[in-house]
Amino acid sequence: MQSKHNNYNTALDTIGNTPIIKLQNIVPPNHANVYAKLESYNPTGSKKDRMALAMIEGAEERGELSNGMTVVEYTGGSTGSALAFVCAVKGYKFHVISSDAFGREKLDTMRALGAKLEVIKSQDGKITPDLINQMIQRASEIARKPDTFFTNQLSNPDIIRGFEKMGHEIIEQIAEPIDGFCDSIGTAGSLMGVSRSLKTAGQDTLVIALEPSTSPILTRGTTGGHNIEGVGLGFIPELLDNKYYDHARTVDENEARQTARKLAREEGIFVGTSSGMNIAGAIKLAKDLGPDKTVVAIACDTGLKYLSEGLFS
Ligand SMILES: Cc1ncc(COP(=O)(O)O)c(C=O)c1O
Fold first, then answer.
1. Which atom of ligand 1 is closest in space to residue 237's alpha carbon?
2. 274 Cβ closer than 6 Å to some ligand 1 atom
3. 174 and 190: one domain?
4. Are 107 and 81 in contact (CB under 8 A)?
5. Would 4 be classed as within a structural domain?
6. Can 140 be counted among the known catalytic residues?
7. Could you tell which of 98, 274, 301, 304 is best to mutate to test the pocket of ligand 1, judged by most ligand atoms within 8 Å of the CB?
8. Residues 248-272 pLDDT 10s
């Protein structure tokens, strides 16, 4: 873990090197050990800081993005906050498309970090395939303007590179073999990045992709609405590669929410709904694998982003 007294050149240098914590109280007996990688320690409070930096620096290295240009993206708010942060440090303008289906804290964070924000109205506050498609279309329209760079997170392989570093950190932080890893998927960037690092390091890990039970595109081929921000987009993401996961499982949204509340109250780990989903999936996997094994999951972001939507009410 970084010391408080570290001296950095820019705020970008504070991305990554997040702590990992072994759960002590909410994993029942006769289960594998479960570790949560606490991504809330990143500067905007989410794992997305890693992929935002990777997308911007990847584009700069290839000469696709330079001074004076505007970065464009559609986002539920976590990627938007992370991109707004990276653009603020590097001096790029950032035009972002989001929706009122996502947490007010995330929309306010993007504005606070200087983004130009366009909010698309949702139906009853639900995240649906139709809403995601509207956001994609609007972002693609803006991206056709001159001097813009569309980070296009759903198709951008730079994000996998950004998340490979998270996998390397996990391997360094845990002395024993990692027997199981599970992750809920939006773009699938973090699942792919961590899985690639585990495989490259020669770990024999069972890797599970998680999706909301009301939008089971991978397990049943059907989609629907839910309120787990950032995941279950209603289509199979382009970056998801079958080679890098063993199978998919669903997690019920109520269980994800209940697990987020238990993490806060019984472990002091204050995280959002998709983190609750990941840890709920990890506890099931820990039951399957049994004692003396090790399971890792990502606690994607901070619970502070979910106060207004009522996760902890
Ligand atoms: C809060 C949250 N959790 C999980 C995810 C899913 O991560 P990934 O896009 O790497 O699959 C996202 C992505 O937007 C997110 O915002």
1. 11
2. yes
3. yes
4. no
5. no
6. no
7. 274
8. 999 999 999 999 999 999 999 999 9
